[in-house]
């Protein structure tokens, strides 16, 4: 930034319950939410390991815990492994489209079903339309909804998943994906990432940002199964170490 450009202001949140480990306390580093340059700062924030939640750009900064590791996939180097190729084959009957980020009743109903099944008692399972918009939409972000449709467990054509995705100059950011909890056999979370990678390649974007990888966490550890995965160590991005990828 030039001398005439206002300096970037960062704030540290007050301690709050960790969203990943129930017995831990977390703190976040937040870019000034009133900064009018947030749209322009977003690519830089992604490259520094920040994420978007609503209008906030944040990064975990917990004094005694470094479990949350920012990760991204190098789109040009990525090749699906055997299980991921099987996922694509198993879901060959699905179709997806990219839509403007505007909540529909159908999307909200699926979101609430997903939270009720996956996050029961976690504080998110009572989200309403206002909570949905506050969490997933941003006033300044270039956000799109990837809708995935196909036969549900009863064979009826239905909305099966939504991948909320931000478009930035340096890649796509996978903000949040929710899906039909009755279609576990389809591995829709994995399928959504594979299609986001194809989408990024079509846009000639170099990276797909996946947020935070947490080793041995049952809901966050899956990210290590994607090859060409890079991790941010606070100073630079580098391939996720082989010994980390192999952890159970």
TrEMBL record:
<dbReference type="GO" id="GO:0004057">
    <property type="term" value="F:arginyl-tRNA--protein transferase activity"/>
</dbReference>
<dbReference type="GO" id="GO:0071596">
    <property type="term" value="P:ubiquitin-dependent protein catabolic process via the N-end rule pathway"/>
</dbReference>
<feature type="domain" description="N-end aminoacyl transferase N-terminal">
    <location>
        <begin position="16"/>
        <end position="86"/>
    </location>
</feature>
<comment type="similarity">
    <text>Belongs to the R-transferase family. Bpt subfamily.</text>
</comment>
<dbReference type="InterPro" id="IPR007472">
    <property type="entry name" value="N-end_Aminoacyl_Trfase_C"/>
</dbReference>
<dbReference type="Pfam" id="PF04376">
    <property type="entry name" value="ATE_N"/>
</dbReference>
<comment type="function">
    <text>Functions in the N-end rule pathway of protein degradation where it conjugates Leu from its aminoacyl-tRNA to the N-termini of proteins containing an N-terminal aspartate or glutamate.</text>
</comment>
<dbReference type="InterPro" id="IPR007471">
    <property type="entry name" value="N-end_Aminoacyl_Trfase_N"/>
</dbReference>
<dbReference type="Pfam" id="PF04377">
    <property type="entry name" value="ATE_C"/>
</dbReference>
<dbReference type="InterPro" id="IPR030700">
    <property type="entry name" value="N-end_Aminoacyl_Trfase"/>
</dbReference>
<dbReference type="GO" id="GO:0005737">
    <property type="term" value="C:cytoplasm"/>
</dbReference>
<dbReference type="GO" id="GO:0008914">
    <property type="term" value="F:leucyl-tRNA--protein transferase activity"/>
</dbReference>
<dbReference type="InterPro" id="IPR017138">
    <property type="entry name" value="Asp_Glu_LeuTrfase"/>
</dbReference>
<feature type="domain" description="N-end rule aminoacyl transferase C-terminal">
    <location>
        <begin position="106"/>
        <end position="232"/>
    </location>
</feature>
<protein>
    <recommendedName>
        <fullName>Aspartate/glutamate leucyltransferase</fullName>
        <ecNumber>2.3.2.29</ecNumber>
    </recommendedName>
</protein>
<keyword id="KW-0963">Cytoplasm</keyword>
<keyword id="KW-0808">Transferase</keyword>
<dbReference type="InterPro" id="IPR016181">
    <property type="entry name" value="Acyl_CoA_acyltransferase"/>
</dbReference>
<keyword id="KW-0012">Acyltransferase</keyword>
């Amino acid at each position: 930034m030039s001398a005439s450009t206002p300096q970037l202001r960062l704030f540290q949140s007050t301690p709050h319950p960790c969203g990943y480990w129930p017995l831990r306390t977390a703190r976040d580093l937040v870019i000034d939410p009133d900064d009018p340059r947030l749209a322009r700062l977003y690519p830089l924030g992604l490259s520094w390991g920040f994420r978007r939640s609503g209008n906030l750009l944040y990064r975990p900064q917990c004094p005694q815990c470094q479990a949350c590791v920012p990760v991204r996939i190098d789109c040009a180097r990525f090749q699906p492994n055997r299980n991921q190729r099987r996922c694509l084959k198993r879901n060959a009957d699905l179709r997806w489209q990219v839509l403007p980020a505007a909540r529909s009743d159908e999307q909200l109903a699926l979101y609430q079903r997903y939270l009720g099944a996956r996050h029961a008692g976690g504080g998110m399972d009572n989200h309403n339309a206002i909570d949905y918009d506050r969490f997933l939409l941003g006033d300044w972000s270039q956000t799109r909804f990837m809708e995935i449709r196909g036969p549900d467990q009863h064979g009826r054509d239905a909305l099966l998943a939504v991948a909320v995705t931000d478009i930035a100059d340096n890649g796509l950011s996978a903000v949040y994906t929710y899906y039909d909890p009755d279609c576990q056999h389809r591995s829709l979370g994995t399928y959504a990432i594979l299609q986001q990678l194809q989408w990024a390649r079509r846009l000639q974007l170099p990276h797909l940002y996946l947020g935070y990888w947490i080793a041995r966490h049952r809901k966050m550890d899956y990210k290590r199964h994607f090859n060409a995965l890079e991790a941010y160590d606070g100073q630079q991005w580098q391939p996720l170490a082989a010994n980390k990828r192999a952890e159970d």
